[in-house]
Design brief:
Number of domains: 2
Low-confidence stretches: none
Structural class: alpha/beta
Order of helices and strands: HEEEHHHHEEHHHHEEEE
Strand content: 15-25%
Number of strands: 9
Helix content: 40-55%
Largest sheet: 5 strands, antiparallel
CATH topology of the largest domain: Ribonucleotide Reductase Protein R1, domain 1
Strand order of the largest sheet: 1-2-7-8-9
CATH superfamily of the largest domain: EpsJ-like
Length: 306
């Protein structure tokens, strides 16, 4: 009886062991298959990302070619030209591309505030007016002027060194508007409120009166009220300004008072290009700053992916 009882138990144990081995083997095969699927998906995603990047680079090159062509054909830049028209989504292979070009000189260049001891008084005053027009603290203008000006004993060095982690006042031009987050007094609300009206370009750049919004025009021209600036912007739809003299001719002496000729223009050299790519599961937005010299082509100063 005892010997006869052992054999069935051993047989049952063997069956359980065999089932366990089969289950473990199936689990191992399943894990291998899952890893293989993930590897294949990763490879596919990398291929899609490479394709999306290639399409984005082509889109930026296309924008540069249009800007170069427009620059050779005309001495002015306005919102009625081809470069200013957004590109709606266009099918490209298994995805699509869309984009737009923005005149970077339609905005107030924060680096115009640079100067020994805190920047040009006129430009600082213009930025203060822009801040007031946007219901933001005007004292922020001094903090930005201090940050972008050449090295000198900065009044805010102690404030920055007390931060966690500590850092120093940059005393150099901004390369991107997002750097405002490091400057005293700026937070996400303020930066996003300012973003449509400011830029960070190399050196001193004039504001293009053919593309600037009313708030920027009213800031640059102290004698120009916001409603008057809005009327000027509305008038551009019928006739863009052909020259500085043409623009000045539409203003009164009081509206032009105290504004230097180099503070405004009717053409631009810097443009922001945004390209939005969808390719299978990949979604990419690439932003590039293009520089266009008069009578020649364009060059990419920087490019960012988001």
């Amino acid at each position: 009886m005892r010997a006869g009882g052992i054999a069935p138990r051993q047989a049952g144990l063997a069956v359980v062991t065999a089932l366990l081995v089969v289950a473990l083997a199936a689990a191992a095969v399943g894990a291998m298959a899952w890893r293989e699927r993930m590897w294949v998906r990763q490879v596919a995603n990398l291929e899609d990302a490479a394709q999306a990047d290639a399409v984005a680079r082509a889109g930026i090159a296309w924008a540069g070619a249009i800007l170069a062509q427009e620059g050779r054909q005309s001495g002015i830049d306005d919102l009625g030209q081809l470069w200013a028209r957004p590109l709606p989504p266009v099918a490209v292979g298994s995805g699509s591309v869309a984009g737009n070009v923005t005149d970077a000189q339609s905005r107030f260049n924060l680096n115009d505030l640079a100067g020994v001891g805190g920047g040009s008084a006129q430009d600082v005053a213009a930025f203060r007016r822009l801040l007031v027009l946007l219901d933001l603290p005007p004292e922020l203008a001094g903090a930005v002027a201090d940050w972008v000006s050449p090295p000198y004993p900065g009044a805010l060095d102690a404030y920055y060194l007390a931060q966690e982690p500590p850092y120093r006042d940059a005393h150099r031009p901004l390369t991107d508007v997002d750097e405002l987050y490091r400057i005293k007094g700026f937070d996400a609300r303020i930066v996003e409120r300012l973003r449509p009206f400011v830029t960070a370009l190399p050196g001193y750049t004039p504001v293009n009166v053919n593309t600037a919004p009313a708030e920027v025009l009213a800031a640059v021209f102290p004698g120009l009220g916001l409603s008057e600036a809005q009327a000027l912007v509305a008038s551009r739809g019928d006739a863009y300004f052909q020259s500085q003299a043409d623009f000045a001719g539409r203003l009164t002496a009081g509206q032009l008072a105290g504004v230097r000729d180099q503070a405004f223009s009717v053409n631009s050299q810097y443009f922001l290009v945004h390209v939005h790519i969808r390719y299978h599961r990949v979604r990419v937005t690439e932003k590039a700053l293009l520089y266009r010299a008069r009578g020649s082509g364009t060059q990419i100063l920087w490019k960012k992916v988001s």
